[in-house]
User: Which sequence fits this backbone?
């Protein structure tokens, strides 16, 4: 039997994962529905990780009314809190080639931001990633790693910037990047579920030779006041598990940015490395 190749479907699938942050979710979705995608074919999937609440169209709540007014939104209610790894599970079901994963606590402020991310990604290589929550590793030992941030909260990020990690909760990429079993064994790890979402940025280069980029986003997105409610990074040992994941990937083939190419002193990467105070975490 001859296997038929998967059909290419240019366009964008947006996946929003939510857990007990209804006000944040409403703000996020209202902003997404106001985006000017300039004709890009798209779909919006909303995944609810809270088994005690059901998302559905209704005339009795503002979220319910939003869903009633937008019947094309795909609603997925889970009976289990899969934490961040549900993002990747939903990527496998995405209709379009390009996926934007967005956390429910991020509100997009600029109605052209999603289009700009898409256009930027289309100008890069297939396995590259663009994100608004990145970091560059600057130094590491057997016990700790140092890094500088490159996030949408920083006015210093003014150019497309090569990085190491990215938070999948504000990242856009071609879904083929994670469909291979080699990617799944790093991303879909239940015992490291609070940290597994952070493997994405490293995998782009580790498996496919791609690059993870920070896109300039200062003033174009913000965290909702509910950002700390049920936040994964505030769970016990979240950063410990993240460090363990990073170290394991470093030991099995990941080459940090500063070791795989020479960066010019005037590059956006070196400007951050030289001017932003590094953070230090154990691993």
Assistant:
């Amino acid at each position: 039997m001859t296997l038929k190749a998967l059909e290419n479907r240019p366009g964008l699938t947006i996946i929003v994962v939510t857990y007990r942050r209804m006000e944040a979710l409403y703000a996020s979705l209202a902003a997404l529905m106001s985006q000017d995608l300039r004709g890009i074919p798209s779909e919006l999937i909303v995944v609810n990780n809270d088994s005690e609440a059901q998302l559905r169209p209704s005339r009795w709540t503002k979220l319910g009314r939003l869903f009633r007014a937008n019947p094309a939104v795909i609603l997925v209610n889970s009976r289990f809190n899969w934490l961040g790894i549900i993002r990747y599970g939903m990527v496998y079901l995405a209709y379009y080639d390009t996926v934007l994963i967005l956390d429910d606590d991020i509100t997009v402020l600029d109605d052209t931001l999603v289009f700009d991310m898409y256009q930027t990604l289309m100008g890069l290589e297939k396995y590259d990633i663009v994100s608004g929550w990145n970091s560059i590793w600057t130094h590491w030992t057997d016990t700790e790693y140092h890094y500088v941030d490159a996030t949408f909260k920083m006015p210093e990020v003014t150019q497309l910037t090569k990085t190491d990690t990215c938070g999948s909760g504000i990242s856009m990429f071609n879904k083929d990047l994670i469909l291979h079993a080699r990617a799944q064994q790093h991303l879909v790890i239940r015992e490291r579920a609070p940290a597994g979402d952070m493997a994405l940025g490293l995998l782009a280069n580790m498996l496919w030779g791609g690059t993870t980029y920070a896109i300039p986003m200062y003033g174009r997105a913000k965290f909702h006041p509910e950002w700390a409610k049920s936040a994964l990074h505030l769970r016990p040992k979240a950063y410990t598990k993240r460090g363990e994941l990073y170290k394991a990937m470093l030991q099995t083939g990941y080459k940090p940015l500063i070791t795989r190419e020479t960066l010019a002193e005037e590059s956006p990467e070196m400007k951050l490395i030289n001017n932003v105070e590094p953070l230090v975490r154990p691993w």
DSSP finds eleven helices and 14 strands in the chain. Residues 1-6 have pLDDT under 50 and may be disordered.
